[in-house]
Amino acid sequence: MSFSVWAPARERVRVRVDGRDHEMTAGAGGWWHADVDGVDYGFLLDDSDDVLPDPRSSWQPDGVHGPSRVYDHSAFEWTDQAWTGRALPGAVIYELHIGTFTPAGTFDGAVERLDHLVDLGVTHVEVMPVNSFDGTAGWGYDGVLWGAAHEPYGGPDGFKRFVDACHARGLAVLLDVVYNHLGPSGAYLDRFGPYFAGSNDWGPGLNLDGEDSDEVRRYVIDNATGWLRDFHVDGLRLDAVHALVDRSAQHLLEQLAVEVDALSATVRRPLTLIAESDLNDARLVTAREGGGLGLHAQWSDDLHHALHVALSGETTGYYPDFEGALGRTLREVFFHAGTWSSFRGRRHGRPVDRDRLPGYRFLAYLQNHDQVGNRATGDRLSASVPWRRQVVGAAIVLCSPYTPMIFMGEEWAASTPWQFFASFPDPELAEAVRTGRRREFGRHGWGESEVPDPIDPETVRRSTLRWDEVSEPGHREPADLYRALIALRRSRPELADPRLDRFTVREEGHVLVLHRGSLRVLCNLGDDTEVRLDDEVGEVLLTSAEVGVDGQVVRLPADSFAIVDRASVTTPGRG
């Protein structure tokens, strides 16, 4: 077995394999090598007695402080040889967290619920980070060993079984990865070499453009392509890329896009890169030929904020600017497009070129892990908005030209919150997380007793989906409508058409009318009302309530939607 590690500033490196120490030989570029037989291993730097896990570990059976274990990727028996992947245009994404998706909190437990996602009609499953972090329970964004699947979830074999099971059901898998910082416990990278440079709000950041940064960048690229190649993952969601500090001529994200495109040609299936960014800058998803970075899509929090304000009426925090902004934001993708942001106290963003960029490059959603979990009590939209009103928001998202994303449990208006939780074994770190969380929300008017204890295992239990409620009244109805909306989006190409220059939104008081080819999507967020269309209604395709139709007039009850076909337009394949 050949062991290698990058430690450019060290004068001596040993590898401890199955309890015995072996000297390593210095090679080119700061790499050290040794050929030793064994299974469990770790590295000792200079004359230190600390045994550190491999920064490129694929398996951490005893946690992030324990030894790494040799893992043979070729030993797993895949059954997805016929899988050719799924492209992003036309996709419907479902975001889930392995630890709270089912009571088991494991990859195998999640497999048991995949048929629900197939029945719902989603095409892509976006899995929150599964990299190794300290403790058993957590969101995954405090990972420190990026290539090792979290052992309590089922380790590397468990994740491969999950991906294989998804592919068997026609579901693509997107994996959330975090390259903008490392967690507070088990981040030993800086002992090996100059991995770190500065810090951000979440922890130490990476050295992406300083001395010896080539190997640090390689560390990120190899990790990303490893998930795509060795675990058969179909794409990556890149967390908070605005926090990646890189002044290189070729930004890390562009380098990543180039190498992922090359890998896609090799594995002969589409590979997708989706960014989370606070910049409101479409250059991220503009092709490299057009001067962009070449990523495939990005989240649009502005779409979320405008939807949230319109549905809930909440106008605190970063929401005040979005009051009355839904129609404009739906048309333009970003509300802040070179405009004043009161939350930031400055101008923010730049306009999207709607003639050149397709809508599928932007994700739209009513909820996601951040917008639920980073609320003080982790309350979902359904905790404050009736399910009928939430479903109107779902109709807007699922009938828009954007790539829709659903947060786990949203489709049945789940009663469970999704709260912030961690499980750091170090009592001092655990207390720091606990008090820090309460102080943060205390500044916004919450009492300490109102903020859930993130270290209490009960917080994880409360945040775990209750699958027994899916068929109950008040949950069954929204699930049926979500399913019907997705099916209609698939059967009527107009609803998934990503061309933004053909997308029109008309506002009549509390009613939005989305123009989608020959279809009109009428969304009423106010009281009972009537809407006059430009043509007579030929057919009501789907509605969430009893609607009345009289020629060009549609009577909509409060908090309802209706999707109608214009009588004067002949659609191919229809009379």
Automatic annotation (TrEMBL):
SMART domains (UniProt xref): Aamy (SM00642)
Protein family (similarity comment): Belongs to the glycosyl hydrolase 13 family.
Site positions (Transition state stabilizer): 370
EC annotation from Swiss-Prot or TrEMBL: 3.2.1.141
GO cellular component: cytoplasm
PANTHER family given in the database record: 1,4-ALPHA-GLUCAN-BRANCHING ENZYME, MALTO-OLIGOSYLTREHALOSE TREHALOHYDROLASE
Gene3D superfamilies: E-set domains of sugar-utilizing enzymes (1.10.10.760), Glycosidases (3.20.20.80), Immunoglobulins (2.60.40.10)
Cross-referenced Pfam families: Alpha-amylase, DUF3459
Residues annotated as binding substrate: 237-242, 301-305, 369-374
Annotated protein name in UniProt: Malto-oligosyltrehalose trehalohydrolase
Domain of life the protein comes from: Bacteria
Localization per record: Cytoplasm
MF-aspect GO terms: 4-alpha-D-(1->4)-alpha-D-glucanotrehalose trehalohydrolase activity
Name of the top EC class for this enzyme: hydrolase
Substrates-to-products reaction catalysed: hydrolysis of (1->4)-alpha-D-glucosidic linkage in 4-alpha-D-[(1->4)-alpha-D-glucanosyl]n trehalose to yield trehalose and (1->4)-alpha-D-glucan
Pathway the protein contributes to: Glycan biosynthesis; trehalose biosynthesis
InterPro entries: DUF3459, GH, GH13_cat_dom, Ig-like_fold, Ig_E-set, Trehalose_TreZ, Trehalose_TreZ_E-set_sf
Keyword Cytoplasm among UniProt keywords: yes
Active-site residues, Swiss-Prot/TrEMBL: 239 (nucleophile), 276 (proton donor)
GO BP annotation list: trehalose biosynthetic process
Domain Glycosyl hydrolase family 13 catalytic: 75-439
Keywords attached to this entry: Carbohydrate metabolism, Cytoplasm, Glycosidase, Hydrolase
